[in-house]
Amino acid sequence: MGKVYERIDGRLRTFIEEQKIFFTATAPLAGDGTVNLSPKGLTGSFAVLDELTVAYLDFAGSNAETVAHLRENGRITLMWCAFTGPPNIVRVHGRGEPVFRDDPRFPELLEHFPGIDVDAHGLRAIIVVTAELIRDTCGYAVPFMDYREDRPLHARRFQREDDESLDRYFHKKEHIASSIDGLPGLPLPLPPLRSS
């Protein structure tokens, strides 16, 4: 039923790129640390960079657990499941890294997301994941669900922020600069999105 893949290409790549939502799972090294599982969406915020590397945009939110866990240990699993068409679940297990706004690689990575107005979403980082294990499973128990549209609420909330007000917002949140377990999270102050 399940299959292991050597690379992200062909039908596998098409399947991943067609899904409207995916999930990320990370955890700290501490055995009693908080495991984090996050849904990710927004059309155009995910990209396959090459046969073993994917990336997604990390937008403003009320915590930074994924960023904190990746800074500590780099472990991450991404999962897509088919809600329409033939049943399928794909997981990419690998090593992730948050590339922050002041990283020299940031502008070039951002070019992989031409369909997203990053100013409207409070972009914090680009998460780059290198696959170590790519596998699928049947997905027989995943229900059929229909996609209608992306929710406009995230853009409505964060498009009114500039870099300075976004930085103030992050400073007010308890789990942005550090995780629930006290690991370093998003580096603050927030670097400008574009140099002036």
UniProtKB/TrEMBL annotation:
Secretion signal span: none
Gene3D superfamilies (UniProt xref): Electron Transport, Fmn-binding Protein, Chain A
Record domain Pyridoxamine 5'-phosphate oxidase N-terminal: where: 10-138
Name of the featured protein: Pyridoxamine 5'-phosphate oxidase N-terminal domain-containing protein
InterPro entries according to UniProt: Pyridox_Oxase_N, Split_barrel_FMN-bd
Pfam families: PNPOx_N (PF01243)
SUPFAM superfamilies named in the record: FMN-binding split barrel (SSF50475)
